[in-house]
Each structure stands twice: as structure tokens, then as C-alpha cells.
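User: Here's a structure from my thesis project, written as C-alpha cells. My advisor, Dr. K., wants to see whether a designed sequence matches the one we expressed. Can you design one independently, without my sequence as a hint?
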């Protein structure tokens, strides 16, 4: 089984995997161009996560409306 096919472990509370590593990385060695590129990449990732979150929220709302009993 390839590593890409294995289920990912969920992050423990307070540990968000790669995001935690990024937040603790020193930025001193980066040039302005590298920092600009990094900001653009992170903004694109935030947009991607926001889109996925909205899709997941809509999916959960649809599931809840189907499977939750209606309140009298």
C-alpha cells in the first residue's frame, strides 16, 4: 500500500500537523520574494480549505435534515 493510500491520522488537539510546523518555522532566512510567494500559497490554501469546509457544512446540513427526527 502506498503512503498516499493510507488513512491519515487526525491531529491531536493543539497539533494541526503541517500547519503547526509552518507556524513555528523561522522566517528569518526568507527573501521578500520568497515571503510573498509563501503568502500567496497560504492564501490559496485558505481558500481551498474554506471551499471544502462550506461543502462539508452543506453536506452535514443535508444529512441532518434527512436523518434527525423533526421536533414537534
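Assistant: Designed independently from the structure alone:
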Amino acid at each position: 500500500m502506498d503512503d498516499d493510500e493510507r488513512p491519515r491520522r487526525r491531529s491531536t488537539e493543539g497539533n494541526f500537523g503541517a500547519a503547526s510546523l509552518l507556524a513555528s518555522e523561522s522566517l528569518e532566512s526568507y527573501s521578500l520574494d520568497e515571503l510573498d510567494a509563501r503568502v500567496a500559497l497560504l492564501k490559496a490554501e485558505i481558500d481551498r480549505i474554506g471551499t471544502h469546509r462550506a461543502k462539508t457544512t452543506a453536506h452535514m446540513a443535508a444529512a441532518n435534515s434527512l436523518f434527525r427526527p423533526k421536533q414537534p
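When you compare it with your expressed construct, this may help: The helical segments are 18-24, 32-67.
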